[in-house]
Amino acid sequence: MTASLTESVVAPGTGSAPNPGESRHRRVTAGNVATGIGVALVATALLAPSVLAPRDPSAVDLDHTLAPPSLHNWFGTDEIGRDLYTRVVHGARDSLAIGAGAAAVAFLLALVLASAAALAPGPVARATDRVIDVLFAFPTLLLALLTVSVLGPSTSTLVVAVGVGCAPGYARMIRAQMLRARGSGYVEAATALGHSRSAVVRRHIVPNSLRPLVAVFALSIGQCIVWASSLAFLGLGVAPPSPEWGALLDAGRSYLTRAPWLVVIPGLFIVALALVTTAVGRSLQHRLERGE
């Protein structure tokens, strides 16, 4: 009697209970497929943009200026007749390079600040900790704007500015990881075995502090792309005629009412690339958590 009641409650129509692990596996598989497709498209745009867009991104056609999207020009044309689809595809390399470069600058600065805050002698550590807190209080975009105003607008300045803006947040994360690693058993064992402080830091604290942040680095690339595009939209990014997506936004804002596709389409691709890098970062994070 009890068994029959249990069967009817658990599986009224099938005779078996749903498997939560199976549904989770389906979600993970779908996420991996979506990530794989996105990564494949991004890789093609980076390594062989001519495969996706064989036209010349700088080719001018004054007879078809500000043409709306059509079968001939999938994303329309800009103010001097250049094909927007071709420029978007060829601009992916510049946008991702700026995002990855800015993320690298951010993590290098963060590593220096976090090392001083977590591993330096008391007064230096406290002073560095206060510097990190003060910088963290400023919005990312404001720090980037201040850096650009000091160094002047250019592509290299854009990379450095976005990196400086993002560094304080990453410094706090790395500092927390270093403090946790410094108090761990393997560091105490290495110290007890007579290893020098520099060797302990180099071989144990730094590697074990940065390993969990590999996924964060991938996530930060998308964030840096968005910040770089924001600066470019303000006229502080890559100069024309580069097809970098932020530069496309800056060039298209003058025609927002007449040709909104010049802003909407690059903006959508910026969001899409940020989502792809975020998906890759989360996938790396799940793998690290599982110990793969």
Automatic annotation (TrEMBL):
ABC transmembrane type-1 domain span: 92-281
Compartments it resides in: Cell membrane
BP GO terms, sorted: transmembrane transport
CDD domains linked: TM_PBP2
Disordered: annotated span: 1-25
Entry-linked PROSITE patterns: ABC_TM1
Keyword set includes NADP: no
Keyword terms, alphabetized: Cell membrane, Membrane, Transmembrane, Transmembrane helix, Transport
Pfam family, one: BPD_transp_1
Keyword Transmembrane helix set for record: yes
Membrane topology: Multi-pass membrane protein
InterPro entries: BP-dependent_transpt_permease (IPR050366), MetI-like (IPR000515), MetI-like_sf (IPR035906)
Transmembrane segments: 33-52, 96-119, 131-151, 157-174, 213-239, 259-280
Domain of life according to the entry: Bacteria
Gene3D superfamilies given in the database record: MetI-like
GO cellular component entries: plasma membrane
Family listed: Belongs to the binding-protein-dependent transport system permease family.
Record's protein name: ABC transporter permease
